[in-house]
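Students often ask why we bother encoding 3D structure as a string. The short answer is that it lets us treat folding as translation between two languages. Here is a chain of 269 residues written in the first language.
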Amino acid sequence: MTTKIGIIGCGWLGLPLATSLIGKGHVVKGTTTSKDKLELLKKNGIEPFPITLTENNIQGPIEDFLHTITTLIIDVPPKLRGKGPKESYIAKIQLLHEAIKKSSVQNIIFTSSTAVYGDVEGMVNEKSLPVPNTSSGKQLVQCEQLFKNDSSLKTTIIRFGGLIGPGRHPITMLAGKQNLNGGTAPVNLIHLDDCIGIIETIIETDHFGDTINAVYPEHPTKQDYYTQEAIKRNLPLPHYTQTLGKTYKKVESCSIFLINNYDFLTTIN
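And here it is in the second language, the structure alphabet:
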């Protein structure tokens, strides 16, 4: 069934997601903060809208963008790092929520992060209580609750693990680094193909109202995994210090398998 879908944020995930949805027969509207990117979206069959979220207002034709959309994917991560002034991610999302309330949108997919679990030790799953220890993690939890507590919207929260895929892999920054900590920690990663596959399966099965950890089910240690990834790419090996007696966070994805028996598409190796 054809659905009119909106994607706030047509970046590394949003753009290929949009083109994949269009290939499945959906109509997709997409936003970008760069006017130079509008033509790229249009060439990919996406109806483009120049929209920027700030903590004070929404710049751009947000009403036109939301008009006739029934399912909205929010893929705007907090940008709280760097030396520039920090904006309130919560304020941005609150303004977006207010605009959504005035629109035809019924279903929400809000992309979050497993960072909301903080530095807890041992296995965590969707029933685990978030204990974020970073500003971005704390704000993500508040934004998750903003939508989950709104009974007029059917919202699915996707807490993605570390994202890997074309042009994006942690080993490119870790290669050759010395005295890295946490070598015995498990990796909690997911490939772009599965980010797209999970979102599409949620839409196709109308699986709204859940919270999902989106992490590949295999968890090699960082030392083993990134050493092998460096070898595969002919990069300098990362060096880890030995950490004894510490248990690290391993994120379990339970809810994914309730969605049409979802089967992961791409390994992290």
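Translate back mentally: The first helix runs from residue 14 to 23. Keep this in mind for the problem set.
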